[in-house]
């Protein structure tokens, strides 16, 4: 990642995010036009529109996935409604498609925008969102809930335009009649729609994630493997089923998906539980005075920035951040909190503490990888994985700063001189760049 | 199998194998019969011949059978793949709902003649890992269920429309699909119950009601998958071709696959609680076993109060985590030997608030916060941190307070030995109204009469011979009442009949108390006048070395307590005896921990 791309901290309140604003504006204009047009012309096949609208709204409520950002049922429903025009022309046209999808997606997203739930739905199963956001300095914006309807409406409009222009009536040369080829065509359109959806998601999320567009796009396609395309392809199948057996296909097709959504939510909750436990343990080290107040969060945020500087992937960045949050848990075993002015612990003792902390993290279910990093933070450099080296360097720097040293490059130089080869030079260089970018402010 | 864990077949392997063999034979016989029928009804009369009766009739769509069989096998292998992500749990409920392949099997049952449908699951089941007998058993079980479903579907379709299978329009076609799916689930469940009956075991579904519940539990899910399979069937017959039907089955299969693994959440929550307790254990070794026992005692009380299910589980968590705030108290104070200064005591008394602060961010522990924050309140308003009184104290916190005090009194510490259960209960009764909620104390006493109690492992011998517990230790973490209260115990007055060797394992008068601790026979106990608080000499270890290396718990009574965790009893904790009444011990009178 080039240093020119600012971190999330700097982005807030800075220049406006032009592509995202353009996308939102386009969606607003298109949506308003479509609604006016549809109301003027009258709704075609109101029963179908109502059924799919209900499906999309329900799907928006039943979100799952990391940060509850995925709504597979809503994606499938909106794509299916858009593609209905391609199977026997039971759809309602492009304008009505956009209008129905936009309105129902807005209705489904409204509860999550209610006051008090802006940061994320369902506090009891709230995923890593708030904790991670607080750490990384990326607040969940209240207006974020508008982005999903924007995406839904634009992608549905895209799919509808595709099938309407290539409809047998409009373009008989493409194929003739119903059949497997038509099914293939719809699947192709659905997959194309999925790519468009990923692109829109990347554009809209770019600013919040603080990462370049290309990296976001690649990640969107990679993780989780094919969830987006699968949802849109399911939409194509739903359209085919609706054309075959009528609106009964909606419950028959979507009810079997509910157990999966439920399971995905539970799985996310399990992951979130592990993480929340880690954060809570980090809070315990502060409460107990084992570490200076704010130390775990400072180390976590700085380690994440250094990891980004070193070009780690989003998954590795999460790993670094979680491990940094929990890296001092082992210190709970010390009879006397030793930090600040206290003399540094001998290496053996540090290693023992690291092992104890790692054991607790392992037990917490936050992940064996995190536990391994915590365990190895005090080892010799050549035995350490890269995340452990990052945390080691940032931890040492933060301890110096907390001991009264001025934050900035001169302290870093002191660190470089005193630590010898215990610290990875590459990591320290990255830390220097991050500090230079942030200015001297901690 | 559905309810048979892998290792559960040990004892009755022979019976189980016999039952499986019967299953296999039965399925083969049925297949033969059915093939004959298919052949007869089919266009080709050759199906009725002896050789032809082994195959599902000449009109069978073999390509469809092969396609669905491959799909089912793929679903099976997908289920065996490890899930990406942190908590790696062994897959327990592999076949919890017939596996991820259930929609495929149902689609087969809807699309194919029964004999052909019975062949769909065979390949996948045989490809499963495991000994050949087990694989054969699985194949037979699934075959039988699919065959039944196909038959039910065919006859129900005939009933609904009077037409041939596949001819019913929607939504009429949904009824046969649902009926067939329910039949599928029922047959699977019945086979499992039969398996257990054959093996002479009834662990997961004791009694008729349990069996009925085990049978009924997966039925809604199977019904839902039946809807998915019906959609696939409709697409199969549509002009879009069987390919779309196969694709339409995939989301339902993925859904089932994900569901088969969602039990990870419970595991993650257990792990989280375990990690917090373990972290407290880093600082103060005694707390871990104590926490778990307080959780158990809270559940005992909660059951008496009529709590069930999730609320009971939340109560257990609250009990287990009630002292998690000790993480915020400096270790030096937790392990301190002498009496605490008022200043230090104030710091220690912050631990409920620390606990609340720690648990705040953990979603599933949200409901334990009130209990953790208020478990040191007294009914008369003299407790901390808020000085709440009476009904203003949350009910959960009142439960935890009683459980905490009870366990603190009945477990042995480095500076005093455990008190017997009856005595502890009497002490709790004495403090009803002022400190404890009488309702909770009564509930605890009832529960103890019913279930008995396994106290903490006998720890170290008392530091002071003959040292007995003062009334203040009833407070678990409660600050002492007026010092110098005479101990509420008259050594010779206690009924010391031949109750179990751990003198506090049962209540006097509760003759039929099942003692969970398999202690030595009563004969090994001095029968009468035994002074159970006399220090047994075989455990002279005054203090465990430290929380990181928990010393082995020296059995003070010579009673091993199997199954109980053995925390290193390092350092004094919550229930410090009052210094005034017991000058010889005199540690930290009522430090309020």
Automatic annotation (TrEMBL), chain B:
Residue ranges with Pro residues bias: 480-489, 515-524, 534-553
Compositional bias segments (type: Low complexity): 567-586
Transmembrane domains' residue ranges: 61-79
InterPro entries, per the entry: Cyclic_di-GMP/3'3'-cGAMP_PDE (IPR052020), HD/PDEase_dom (IPR003607), HD_GYP_dom (IPR037522)
Location of region: Disordered: 450-593
The UniProt record lists the keyword Transferase: no
Xref: SMART domains: HDc (SM00471)
UniProt keyword ATP-binding present: no
Superkingdom of the organism of origin: Bacteria
HD-GYP domain location: 265-460
Keywords: Membrane, Transmembrane, Transmembrane helix
Protein name as annotated: HD domain-containing protein
Organism annotation: Streptomyces zingiberis
Species lineage: Bacteria, Bacillati, Actinomycetota, Actinomycetes, Kitasatosporales
